[in-house]
Amino acid sequence: MLYGQDERTAAIYAPVQAELERVEAKLKGLASEATTATEDLRPLLDYVAETGGKRIRPALTLLASHSYPHDSDKLVLMASAVELLHLATLIHDDTVDDSSTRRGRATVSNVWGHHVSVLFGDYVFATSATFVCDTESLRIMRRFSETIMELASGELIEYFGAYDPNQARHLYDDRIYRKTASLFCTAGESGAVLAGAPEEEVQAMKRYAYNIGMAFQIGDDLLDFEGEESNMGKPVGSDLRNGVLTLPTILLMERYPEDNPVAAFFRDKDNPDKLQRVLDMINDSSIMQDSRDVVRNYCNRACAELEILPQGEARDSLAALAEYVPDRQR
Amino acid sequence: MLYGQDERTAAIYAPVQAELERVEAKLKGLASEATTATEDLRPLLDYVAETGGKRIRPALTLLASHSYPHDSDKLVLMASAVELLHLATLIHDDTVDDSSTRRGRATVSNVWGHHVSVLFGDYVFATSATFVCDTESLRIMRRFSETIMELASGELIEYFGAYDPNQARHLYDDRIYRKTASLFCTAGESGAVLAGAPEEEVQAMKRYAYNIGMAFQIGDDLLDFEGEESNMGKPVGSDLRNGVLTLPTILLMERYPEDNPVAAFFRDKDNPDKLQRVLDMINDSSIMQDSRDVVRNYCNRACAELEILPQGEARDSLAALAEYVPDRQR
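ok -> C-alpha cells follow
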C-alpha cells in the first residue's frame, strides 16, 4: 500500500497500482534530476514528493486509460503531471492562507518562508507542464493550462467573495468546479484521450470526473462542519469563520431568506454567538443530510456515465471510487 | 509610438510596429474576455495590461520571424505570450520582494495584497501558456514551460545565495541566464521556429537572443550602481545591500581575493561604512568600464550571429537592437 492509501483505496487502485508506484517514483526522483546549479531546490523537491495524500487524481488518470490499449509511459507522465499540479496549488494556497500545517505536516511556506514558497510553487507548476508536453498532446496541454487558470480564478473568486452573503447556489457550483472539479475533469479526460478512447467515451469520462470532483469538494466542505477539531486540525466551521459560503450555509440561507443568520454573522463576525447560531440552525435541521444527498447524487450521476465505457476492472474501480467518495474521511 | 517606447526603440521596432500594436490590443483585451464568473479579475487584468515597458521581448519574437514568410496571427499570439509571461514574473517578483512600486506605479501586491497577487500571478502565467498552446507548436510549448522553471529557479538561486561571498563568475552567468536571458532565448527561438526558419538560423537566433539577454541583465545590474536615486526609485547599490552579487562586485572580489571588501560588508551588513567602501572601491577602479565592455562584448557576439540570417529590415533592426542595449536606460 502506498503512503496515504487506506485498504479501501488500495483495493480500488489495484488495476493501476504498478503505474501509481511509478508515479510515486517519478515524484521522488525530481530532486535527483536537480543539477549543481539547482541543488538548492533539492530539499524542497524532496519535501514536496513526501507530501502524501490519497493520490486520487493520478489514480483517476490511470483508471481512465486502462479500458484501452495505452502507452504506459505517457500515462505515468500525465498522472504525475496531474498530481504535481495539485501539489503546486497546495504550496500557493498554503502560502496565501498563511497555513502553518497541512495534515499535521509543516507547509512549505512555514518551513522556507513566503519568498521561497511563491517562487518554488511556480517552479512546480512549470515542472508539471513539462511532463504534459512530453505526452505530446496539444489538446491536453491546452486543457492543462486552462485548468491552472480555473484553479487560480476559483481561489480568487472565493477570496473576493468572502463575507458576501449574496452568493447564490450556482456561484458556489462554479467556484468548486474551478477549485476542484476542473482538475478532476482534466485527470479523467487526459487519461482517456492519451489512451485513444473514442470521443464519446472521452466526454463520458470527463462528465464522470466532473461529478466525482464536485462530490469530492462538497464532501470536503461538509467535513468542515462535521469534523472534530482533533481530526481536522482546525476548528469546526472554519470556512464560515473565514467568510466562505459552502453548501450547508447556502442551503440555510435559501431556507431563511428573511432574518438570515449567515448575513447576521457576516455583519457581526467577531460575535461568537452569531456564529454558534448558524451552526446550531444547521445541526437542528435536515441540512447536513440534504447536503450528503447532494454528494450522493453527484456520485450516482458519475456512475451513470460509466455505462458506455468498456466493461472490465478499470470501469469497476471507477464505479467503486464513486461509492467511496461519499464515505471518505480526510 | 506605443506607451513605454522612446524614439530609438520606435525606429528599431518599425518593421513590426503593426504586429506590436496587435500584441498591445491582445493584452488590453484580456479583461473583456472575462466572464460573469471571473469579472472580479477584470480590474487586475486591466491593471496588468497597462504595466507599460519597452516591450523588447515581444519585439524580439516578431523581428525573429520577419525574415521569413510567417503566419502573423500565430506570431502575435506568441509575442503576447512572451510579454505576458514577463508580466507574470514581475507580479510574483514584486510580491516576494514586497516592492511597493515599479517604475513609479504601485505593484499588484501593493494595491491588492499578497493573497491576490500570488494567485493572480498564477492566473497570468497560465494565460500566457494558453496563448502558446494556440500556436500549436509542441516544441515551443515545452521550451516555454522550461523557461518558467528557469525564471523561478533563477530567482530562488539568487535568494538562497544572498550574502554568500563565495559566488564565482560562472554562477552569476548561470543565474542571469535563468532570470533574464532564458526568456530572451525563448522569445527569439519561438519567432524563428514559428516562421519556419531553417534550424541553423533558429539556433543563430537563439544565440543572438541569449547574448542580448545577458547584456540586458548586466546592463540592468550596472544601472544599480550608476543610477541616481531619483531615476531608479531605489538607492544606489540596492542589489549589494540585499546581498546580491552582480558583475561589478564579482569583479571587485576577483581583484581582492584577500582582504575582500564585499565579504567584509556581508559579515557586517548593518555597517554603512563597509557598504560605502565597496562602492568607493568600484568607483575608484576600472570596474564599471570593464563591466560596460562585457555588455558590449555580448552585444557584439549577438551581432555576429546575425550574419547567416536573410538580409533585410528585420535583420537590420535586430542589429540596431544590439547597438541599443548598451546605451539604454530603464
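The radius of gyration of chain A is 20 Å.
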